[in-house]
C-alpha cells in the first residue's frame, strides 16, 4: 500500500523533530546555559511548553500511528482487508490534524516569544521585565546590552525559539501532507496514488 509507505516515511521524520522540540524547550529553562535563581525570571512563553507539549508529546502520537500504517489493515473490516486499510488511513488523517494543531501551537508560542524578546534584568531600571518591543532587537544586536542578566539570554532564547519555530513549521507541513495522503488512502485504498518514499 503506497499511501502506507508514505505515512511510514513521514512518521519516521516526525520522531527526531519531536525530540528536537522537547530538548529545545527543556534548554529554555536554563537561560544562557545556567540555572536561574527564581523561576519568575523566566520568559512567560517558556512555561507554555510549546516544544514539550505541541512539538513533542502531541507529535509522538501521530508519528507512531504513521509508522504503523504500512502493514496495518485494522484487522480487516468484516473480512475485507482493503476496507480495514482504508479505515486505518482515515484514522491517520485524524491524528495528522492533531499533529497540525500541536505543531501550530508550538509555532505560535515561538513566534510570539521571538517578537517579544526574553525576560531579563533590565539595565535602565534594574528590574526584571521585557526591554524589547515588537521585535525591535532582532536587527540590532547592540540593543541586547539592555539585558544584564542572565548573561547571553538574548541569543539563547532567540536561537532556541527559532529552532522551535522551524520545527513547528516542518511538522505542520509533514502532518498536512499526511492529511492529504490519508484522504487519498481512504478514497483509493490500494491504488497507486502516492508513491512517496517508495
Automatic annotation (TrEMBL):
InterPro entries: L6_membrane (IPR008661). Keywords: Membrane, Transmembrane, Transmembrane helix. It is found in: Membrane. One of its GO terms (cellular component) is membrane. It is a multi-pass membrane protein. It comes from the Eukaryota. The chain crosses the membrane at residues 12-31, 46-67, 87-114, 158-177. Belongs to the L6 tetraspanin family. This is Transmembrane 4 L6 family member 4. It comes from Muntiacus muntjak. The lineage of its organism: Eukaryota, Metazoa, Chordata, Craniata, Vertebrata.
Amino acid at each position: 500500500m503506497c499511501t502506507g509507505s508514505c505515512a511510514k516515511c513521514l512518521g519516521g521524520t516526525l520522531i527526531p523533530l519531536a525530540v528536537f522540540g522537547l530538548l529545545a524547550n527543556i534548554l529554555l529553562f536554563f537561560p544562557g546555559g545556567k540555572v536561574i535563581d527564581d523561576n519568575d525570571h523566566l520568559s512567560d512563553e517558556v512555561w507554555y511548553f510549546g516544544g514539550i507539549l505541541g512539538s513533542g508529546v502531541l507529535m509522538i502520537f501521530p508519528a507512531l500511528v504513521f509508522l504503523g500504517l504500512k502493514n496495518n489493515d485494522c484487522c480487516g473490516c468484516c473480512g475485507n482487508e482493503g476496507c480495514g486499510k482504508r479505515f486505518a488511513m482515515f484514522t491517520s488523517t485524524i491524528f495528522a490534524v492533531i499533529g497540525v494543531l500541536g505543531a501550530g501551537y508550538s509555532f505560535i508560542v515561538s513566534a510570539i516569544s521571538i517578537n517579544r524578546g526574553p525576560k531579563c534584568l533590565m539595565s535602565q531600571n534594574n528590574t526584571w521585565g521585557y526591554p524589547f518591543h515588537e521585535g525591535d532587537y532582532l536587527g540590532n544586536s547592540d540593543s541586547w546590552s539592555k539585558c544584564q542578566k542572565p548573561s547571553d539570554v538574548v541569543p539563547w532564547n532567540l536561537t532556541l525559539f527559532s529552532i522551535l519555530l522551524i520545527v513547528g513549521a516542518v511538522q505542520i507541513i509533514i502532518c498536512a501532507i499526511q492529511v492529504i495522503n490519508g484522504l487519498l488512502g481512504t478514497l483509493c485504498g490500494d491504488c497507486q496514488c502516492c508513491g512517496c518514499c517508495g
